[in-house]
Design goal:
This protein has 118 residues and is α+β, with helices and mostly antiparallel strands. It has one domain (23-116): Vaccinia Virus protein VP39 (Rossmann fold). Helix content is 19%, strand content 30%. It is built from three helices and four strands, in the order βααβαββ. The chain has helices at 33-36, 42-52, 79-86, and strands spanning 25-31, 53-64, 90-97, 109-116. A four-stranded mixed beta sheet has the order 1-2-4-3. It is globular, with a radius of gyration of 15 Å. The protein starts with 24 loop residues before the first strand and ends with a strand. The model has no long low-confidence stretch (mean pLDDT 94).
């Protein structure tokens, strides 16, 4: 990635422990990171994510809406689980079935659009 985007001032590639990262962002897009984390880290993920967002910051992305038979990653989850997890730190603007999933994951994903609570 660093080679591919070398010289592109609009792209900053970071390679570090998420839980150690410091910064402030207006928008964070979630795709596959959450489902790769052990479920026991999800509360820490939500708390850390809330610390990375600016005052009006948003977290948007796609999460699995199913449980997997095999040990993960990926790790699955449900809308109820996500609502309980995220409502502590975020206003939930959207938490609904993802209408534009790729065919292989159709019906098994939810789209989230969360705003940091003030």
């Amino acid at each position: 990635m660093k080679k591919k985007f070398n010289g592109n001032e609009g792209i900053n590639i970071l390679a570090q422990d998420y839980f150690e990262h410091e910064g402030t962002y207006d928008l964070i897009l979630e795709q596959t990171f959450f489902c790769a984390l052990e479920p026991g880290l999800r509360e820490a993920y939500a708390e850390k994510m809330s610390s990375l967002l600016s005052e009006n910051g948003k977290l948007a992305g796609v999460l699995f809406d199913k449980q997997f038979e095999n040990e993960g990653p990926p790790f699955g989850g449900s809308r109820d689980e996500y609502e309980n997890l995220f409502e502590k730190h975020f206003e939930i603007n959207t938490l609904e079935s993802c209408y534009n999933s790729v065919a292989k994951r159709s019906g098994n994903e939810v789209f989230i659009n969360l705003k940091l609570k003030k």
